UniProtKB/TrEMBL annotation:
<dbReference type="InterPro" id="IPR050282">
    <property type="entry name" value="Cycloisomerase_2"/>
</dbReference>
<protein>
    <submittedName>
        <fullName>3-carboxymuconate cyclase</fullName>
    </submittedName>
</protein>
<dbReference type="GO" id="GO:0017057">
    <property type="term" value="F:6-phosphogluconolactonase activity"/>
</dbReference>
<dbReference type="Pfam" id="PF10282">
    <property type="entry name" value="Lactonase"/>
</dbReference>
<dbReference type="InterPro" id="IPR019405">
    <property type="entry name" value="Lactonase_7-beta_prop"/>
</dbReference>
<dbReference type="InterPro" id="IPR011048">
    <property type="entry name" value="Haem_d1_sf"/>
</dbReference>
<comment type="similarity">
    <text>Belongs to the cycloisomerase 2 family.</text>
</comment>
<dbReference type="InterPro" id="IPR015943">
    <property type="entry name" value="WD40/YVTN_repeat-like_dom_sf"/>
</dbReference>
Length: 368
């Protein structure tokens, strides 16, 4: 049976989701019978979900509550809290779990924080340990210099600095994280036009280096290609930047491609970036025109080509997922999801096969 956990926005985020939901189809007729089966656990605005690689544990970014929480499987179609919520930065919008299940990275849109949590053997979130040395210094010598920069909280990566220094309304907006094969972590900062690369340590994250994208592009989400390239979609400029590592491990941009020749900057705002299992095609959703843009991966993964643009069938497609040759699309503002057929040869979306009512959907996660 085809089933998906569903993230969604609750009342605090102007939505109607009551928690993590379940989308499922009837046995043998999955494609034509996918329907919302209700909330499997009540929790406020679980806008992004991630699966532990080996355990029946799901992690949620509780965006409106500025917290992350773990949930364990409780039967075929239910989840239960696995420990209390862990406080994190403002408007946490993304969580990613290490391939070995050792850590979780939370990205916080509101204040730009990127936070690393250890995970224990049961998948529970372990709160970062306070800086004992700093606490001892404060106890012995009193408060620190009020003019000194604030200390980085335990588990946090160092705060981003605007590479353009233009001030005004520009603020840091961390948005997503991806674990790389060499153990490092890549994150996006939509507000400061940065793709940041981190090394993990026992104390959290250490900044390795940054790739600065053009002013005002707004890097949002990423997908790691089987070739080793990192594709990054930009919310404000409607582009996909392709990055590659040099021999010394330093990443840089190797190509830039429009999501679609007819995408309108300032009207269209790309959301998710997803790929087919074989890496032959990438797809991004354009909120605004409410379309799906398909791109073919060329060469050795270093270049892209726009191949099609099709109706998403929803309003404000916040997330989409390629699954078994089809695409699921979550319409945040229409309270619907659609199932779209894909042409295996050309990559083009072929049309909407199925539609279902869902309360303010924001993320799909296949039930393992």
């Amino acid at each position: 049976m085809t089933r998906f956990w569903l993230g969604g926005y609750g009342a605090a985020m102007d939505g109607s989701a009551e928690g993590i939901g379940l989308l499922a189809g009837d046995e043998g007729r999955e494609a034509s019978t996918l329907a919302y089966r209700g909330a499997v656990v009540e929790t406020p605005s679980p806008s992004w979900l991630a699966q532990h690689p080996t355990l029946d544990v799901v992690y949620a970014a509780l965006e409106g509550d500025s917290a992350v929480q773990a949930f364990s499987r409780a039967g075929e179609a239910a989840l239960a809290p696995l420990g209390p919520p862990a406080a994190v930065g403002q408007y946490v919008c993304h969580v990613a779990v290490a391939p070995n299940g050792s850590a979780l990275i939370a990205s916080c849109y509101g204040d730009g924080r990127v936070v690393r949590f250890d995970l224990d053997a049961d998948g529970r979130i372990v709160a970062p340990k306070p800086d004992a040395a700093a606490a001892l210094r404060a106890a012995l010598f009193g408060d620190a210099d009020p003019d000194a920069p604030a200390a980085t909280p335990p588990g946090d990566g160092v705060a981003a600095v605007d590479p353009y220094g233009v001030g005004g309304d520009r603020v840091s907006h961390a948005h997503a994280a991806t674990f790389l094969p060499d153990g490092r972590v890549a994150t996006t900062d939509l507000g400061f036009d940065l793709v940041r690369f981190w090394r993990q340590s026992g104390s959290g994250l250490t900044l390795d280096h940054e790739v600065v994208l053009p002013l005002g592009t707004g890097p949002r989400h990423m997908v790691l290609h089987p070739s080793g390239h990192l594709h990054v979609v930009t919310e404000y400029s409607c582009e996909v930047f392709t990055l590659a590592p040099a021999a010394d491990g330093t990443w840089s941009v190797v190509s830039v491609t429009l999501t679609s020749p007819i995408a309108e900057v300032g009207t269209d705002f790309p959301a998710e970036l997803a790929r087919t299992r074989d890496g032959q095609f990438l797809y991004t959703a354009l909120r605004g025109s409410n379309t799906i843009a398909a791109l073919r991966v060329r060469g050795g993964g270093e270049s892209l080509e726009s191949v099609a643009l099709a109706d998403a069938g929803v309003d404000w497609p916040r997330h989409h997922l390629v699954h078994e040759g089809k695409m699921l699309v979550a319409g945040q503002r229409s309270d619907t999801i659609t199932l779209i057929d894909l042409d295996e040869r050309t990559g083009a979306p072929l049309g909407i096969r199925h539609e279902a009512q869902v309360p303010t959907p924001t993320h799909f996660l296949p039930v393992r």
